[in-house]
Design goal:
The structure holds two protein chains of two kinds. Chain A is an alpha/beta fold. Chain A contains eleven helices and six strands. Helix content of chain A is about 55%, strand content about 10%. In chain A, helix 9 links the parallel strand 5 and strand 6. Chain B contains six helices and no strands. In chain B, helix 2 packs antiparallel against helix 3. The chains are: A alpha/beta, B mainly alpha.
Chain lengths: ~280, ~210
């Protein structure tokens, strides 16, 4: 009896998985174009980036996501990098979470075609992953040249035109953090709050309820949550990308999941009532 | 990069994605496990290379070019490995004490200000004015008080109306917490859906359908 029940449950799970996969394929091939409302937290980020120019101090771009979370984080960092490139803003890319970040940084460079308009060492620099967690993040803001002695390609940062004069946190105009490894509280604690550096953070959708509390007290100036956040930024900046393509999938699969939850509950309670009778 | 290498890489990525998808679409199997172990092994291998390279460029090289203070760091690093030698395992405590001390010092300095005082300050808001609507403000204030109340482990009171009201408050607190947990779970589902859809988008692109 129990074995039959488990078998039925397993088959049910497989059916739902197939249903969702087929739906995703269909929606990607035939997008619906559901409307999108821009949230104030994304608008804050867009406004701050729009106010920057080639005269601004460089932005510290924190690549804190993993290979597994590329589908969620990469659309966000891509659209923001493209937007900053349009404005001519200099960028320093760094990672503080996992070792993948050095190669992910390179992936971002390739996907936005940064080499076409920006010159390495002058307009952008890739420091790559820095091990050391919170200690490294804190020290990076105090002794940049010591913690980031070389870039990801082995060039001394003291010799690169963009980074040679960067000594500490005050040499950056803002921190744009793209995080799916849960490191954003470390940047809040060690950069945003003690040194009053504006911090804008992208987090995965599961971290959205948490970052809202930091945003509401002003410790984070703006944030994007998952693909919907990135899609809103794409709408604001007029640079459509992968996030907009994925919002339809996200919305429709969520509605399907909700219908399945409701249907499952109705079935469960109906069966229980029948058994009682 | 060589186009043949790119094509080969894409083929491997598509194959590994399909192998991983075989778990939710069918059941746990050897092909899935092979892809899972490959992903873990590749991540560990990459992390090791990057960390060793960072140590070489930031510590070893500068130490041999005049910055002799970094030799102390290197010695401390090697002391961490004495934990594998029973006779000298006590030496691990030296670097560990530094690591724990520095970590705690930095965290204590900043955690109190941002995640304790800052968050309490964030709940002390005027009900009517501010960037949020009065309803939002009311929900923040009421839910904060009720959830704190839940963890007070208050005593059972008399069966008077006041006592019964007092006793029913933890139940209300639980509802607020369940709303938060539900929102977190829902957001987590969104994350998993996007990870999954991202791989489907990748396969469709690799097949030239997008």
């Amino acid at each position: 009896m129990m074995a039959d029940f488990k078998k039925t449950m397993l088959r049910g799970r497989n059916v739902i998985a197939w249903l969702l996969v087929i739906m995703m394929v269909v929606i990607y091939l035939r997008p619906v174009g559901l409307p999108l409302v821009v949230s104030p937290s994304v608008r804050c980020w867009y406004t701050a980036a729009s106010a920057m120019s080639n005269q601004s101090k460089p932005v510290l771009m924190v690549v804190d996501y993993t290979v597994g979370t590329i589908p969620e984080a990469q659309p966000a960092i891509t659209v923001v990098t493209k937007h900053l490139m349009e404005r001519g803003v200099a960028m320093v890319f760094v990672g503080s979470g996992v070792a993948d970040e050095t190669s992910l940084m390179q992936t971002v460079f390739n996907s936005v075609g940064i080499q076409k308009t920006y010159k390495y060492g002058v307009n952008y620099v890739g420091i790559g992953y820095i091990p050391g967690g919170e200690v490294a993040i804190a020290t990076l803001g105090l002794e940049f040249q010591h913690v980031a002695a070389t870039d990801a390609y082995g060039n001394p940062t003291a010799n690169l035109p963009l980074t040679k004069d960067i000594k500490s946190h005050s040499d950056f105009s803002a921190v744009f953090d793209f995080d799916t490894v849960g490191n954003y509280p470390l940047w809040i604690r060690n950069w945003a709050v003690p040194h009053k550096i504006p911090l804008y953070s992208f987090v995965d959708a599961s971290d959205m309820p948490m970052i809202t509390s930091y945003y509401s007290v002003g410790q984070v100036q703006g944030y994007m949550g998952g693909i919907p956040g990135a899609a809103q930024y794409e709408v604001l900046s007029g640079l459509p990308g992968d996030a907009l393509k994925s919002t339809d999938v996200l919305s429709i699969t969520h509605v399907t999941a909700m219908i399945l939850v409701v249907a499952g509950n109705i079935l469960y309670f109906t069966r229980r009532r029948d058994q009682k009778e | 990069m060589d186009p043949i290498l790119i094509t080969f890489g894409t083929f491997v990525a598509v194959a590994l994605t399909v192998m991983i998808f075989s778990y939710p679409l069918y059941r746990e199997n050897r092909i899935y496990r092979f892809a899972e172990f490959t992903a873990v092994a590749a991540a560990v291998g990459n992390a090791t290379v990057v960390a060793v390279r960072y140590l070489y460029t930031s510590n070893v090289m500068p130490a041999f070019t005049g910055n002799y203070l970094l030799v102390v760091e290197m010695v401390f690093t090697f002391l961490l490995f004495t934990t594998f030698l029973r006779k000298y395992a006590y030496l691990t405590r030296l670097p560990m004490s530094f690591l724990v001390g520095i970590g705690s010092g930095i965290a204590l300095r900043t955690v109190l200000e941002t995640q304790f005082v800052g968050q309490i300050w964030g709940t002390m808001i005027p009900l009517i004015s501010g960037s949020k609507t009065p309803v939002d403000n009311l929900i923040i204030v009421v839910s904060t008080i009720l959830v704190i109340f839940y963890f007070l482990h208050s005593k059972r009171l008399s069966s008077s109306l006041a006592g019964r009201t007092y006793q029913s408050l933890p139940k209300l607190s639980r509802y607020f917490m369940m709303v938060f947990f539900g929102a977190t779970l829902g957001s987590g589902v969104a994350t998993f859906v996007i990870w999954c859809s991202g791989r489907i988008m990748f396969i469709l692109r690799a097949l030239g359908l997008m």
